Amino acid sequence: MASLIEEPAVQVDNVFNKYADEFGPEKIVYLYEPRCGLRGIVVIDNSSIGPAIGGIRMTPTVNTEEVFRLARAMTWKNALAGIPHGGGKAGIIADPRQMTIEKKETLIRQFARGIESLNQYIPGPDMGTDETAMAWVRDEIRRSVGLSSVLGGIPLDQVGATGYGLAVCAETAQEFVDVDLKGARVTIQGFGNVGQHAARYLVNPKRGAIVIAASDRDGTIYNSNGLDVEELCEHIQQHHGVTGFPGGEVLPIDAFETLECDIFVPAAQPDVINADNAGTLKCKLILQGANIPATQEAEQILHDRGIVSVPDFVANAGGVICGSVEYRGGTKSNAFHEIEEKIKENTHDVLRFARIHGETPRAAALVLAQERVKEAMSYRRAN
Ligand code: NAD
Fold it and tell me: DSSP label at 204?
């Protein structure tokens, strides 16, 4: 029992000592309900622009530091996206794959009741939670995004909001790099929700790119003449992996490190572009579909090599923009319109700023996001 009480306090102290600054965090809340075994964490990092939107992550290893870092990333992403929301995130320490659906529902509902009074936090889906979980949250506290369409939601994974944003980002980035999207050769690491939709929107005749390689946990599928993306997506529906696809040859999982292409879309794990491979990647443009797929060191190496790497919180903001439109009662077409408008403008502004000031796109994006948050903070009561 003692560790359950001490551990959160120690974790909160560590996070404050390591990260607290002029922006936040505003609140770190621990939820503990021994009867059902709920242990939850909520971090509201900064709500100056509006109530914080961010997902509920349900994994056995989620901790305060991880939730804080994700909440801070949402502060920048939401500010830069120009949606009326601050940054926050939540974690439930549990393994959803190791429990019955009834148990999961109990934990989520208990968690929702625990955050009812935290009205500066609007929950959305993240790893381990989905639109059903968001429906339970809404049933308890009338507040969540990422709902199914029957509840007025815009199912962002089904419509491919994040993938669409990546394609819009590519269209705009062409102006800043020697890449013509028509005929551009694309490799995609991680052919899940984000990767598949990004592929679909990039090869759409309006853009005309060619996907030459796609990977998942089992390996890479490669075709130098271009993979048939629709057939590959269909294959994954049935076989749950890219490597058995007959329309290409199988390469190792890390083939992205050596394949020559125009555009590389990391859409799987953090830190896959690092000091070991950033010096040798053979691409001209990187669209960060995954969250933090490149280390800070790698971003600098890519920049020095003239590779344009559009950071996650610019390129993959389609999902949260969709969530924000849903929260305001908008439709799918409103969401796509807003994604297009905002990602186009932000990609342009960030890459232009980076070029003028000789900064990495990530550093440029951070400056622009911080300017917006600081302006919003200036309107708040000082004490
Ligand atoms: P997903 O689970 O649907 O797909 C992940 C894919 O990555 C799977 O195909 C998996 O096999 C593959 N993968 C895992 N490890 C790999 C590796 N080492 N090499 C190659 N492939 C690997 O997840 P998703 O929703 O597509 O999200 C992908 C990333 O994008 C995550 O970092 C997520 O946080 C981020 N993201 C997602 C959204 C969204 O709208 N879903 C929005 C913003 C950011």
Answer: S
pLDDT at 1: 34
Phi-psi region of 110 (alpha: psi -120 to 50; beta: other; left: phi over 0): alpha
Q: What pTM was estimated for this model as a whole?
A: 0.92
Distance from the alpha carbon of residue 266 to the mean position of ligand 1, in angstroms: 9
Indicate the fold that domain 2-11+24-78+86-148 takes in CATH. Answer: Rossmann fold (3.40.50)
Ligand 1 nearest atom to the CA of residue 254, by list position:
19
The verdict on the CB of residue 316 being under 6 Å from ligand 1 is yes
d(CA 273, CA 292): 9
- Ligand 1 centroid from CA 268, angstroms: 4
For the Cβ of 196 lying below 6 angstroms from any atom of ligand 1, the answer is no
Hey, which of 53, 216, 220, 312 would you mutate to test ligand 1's pocket, going by the most ligand atoms within 8 Å of its Cβ?
A: 216
Question: What pLDDT digit, counting tens, does each position of 201-223 carry?
Answer: 999 999 999 999 999 999 999 99
Torsion sign, CA atoms 242, 188, 247, 227: positive
Shortest-distance Cα residue to atom 10 of ligand 1: 216
- Ligand 1 atom 7, closest CA: 190
Burial of 197 by CB count in 10 Å (0-12 exposed, 13-18 middle, 19+ buried)? buried
Q: What order do you get walking across the sheet with 38-46 strand by strand?
A: 27-33, 38-46, 87-93, 52-59, 121-125
The domain ranges of the chain are 2-11+24-78+86-148, 161-370
Structure confidence by residue, pLDDT tens digits, 49-97: 999 999 999 999 999 999 999 999 999 999 999 999 999 999 999 999 9
The residue whose C-alpha atom lies closest to atom 25 belonging to ligand 1 is 193
Is 155's C-beta closer than 6 angstroms to any atom of ligand 1?
no
Helix H or strand E encompassing 7? helix 2-19
Range 161-370 classified under CATH 3.40.50.150: no
Handedness of CA 277, 282, 285, 290 (dihedral sign): negative
| Per-residue pLDDT tens over the stretch 273-330 | 999 999 999 999 999 999 889 998 999 999 999 999 999 999 999 999 999 999 999 9
- For residue 16, what pLDDT is reported? 87
